[in-house]
Design goal:
This protein has helices spanning 6-26, 31-42, 46-50, 58-69, 76-80, 84-89, 92-106, 110-125, 133-140, 144-159. It is 72% helix and 0% strand. Helix 1 runs antiparallel to helix 2. The protein is globular. The protein contains ten helices and no strands.
Length: 160
């Protein structure tokens, strides 16, 4: 899996290692979480994470913003309910971009960090169990999925 540039090789290694860590901690996790967190950790070095210097992935933001402007972007409720097979059959730039953007935004505000803590605790306590993502969001994010989706869309508009 070595790439022409060492930086890219290390990013792939971090991405794939995140999948292994997820499996060890949570068993099977929702695909949006598994791929989103792998995308999140894949491109950032330890120093960036430690110093909270995690720049947004502009190519994902531009892509998602463009889809949103053309009314071609799934709602988060639709996205979070995709099966693994549906996710894998979807446009991969969109699927990975949405996964990364959800995790990135959750990691960048207090309510999101609390939600992530609750989600990871739930997955650790019940490994390999299905999680009703929309129901979990309703219970653990102020204003539920609707509030998060409004925040996510506004963020995409400003940053895309």
């Amino acid at each position: 899996m070595q790439q022409p540039y060492d930086q890219h090789t290390r990013a792939i290694a971090r991405h794939e290692a995140t999948h292994v860590i997820n499996a060890g901690l949570f068993g099977r996790s929702p695909i949006w979480f598994n791929e989103g967190i792998a995308e999140y950790f894949g491109d950032y070095t330890y120093a960036q994470l430690k110093n909270n210097l995690t720049p947004a992935k502009r190519y994902y933001l531009r892509h998602l913003n463009s889809l949103m402007q053309r009314n071609q972007l799934n709602s988060l409720q639709e996205y979070l309910q995709l099966t693994n097979e549906e996710w894998r059959l979807g446009d991969q730039k969109t699927m990975y971009g949405m996964a990364w953007s959800v995790i990135y935004l959750l990691q960048n505000h207090q309510e999101g960090e609390l939600f992530m803590s609750a989600l990871m605790a739930e997955m650790a306590e019940n490994p390999c169990s299905e999680i009703n993502a929309t129901g979990f969001w309703q219970q653990h994010y102020p204003g539920g999925l609707t509030a998060f989706e409004r925040r996510w869309e506004a963020w995409l508009m400003v940053n895309g």
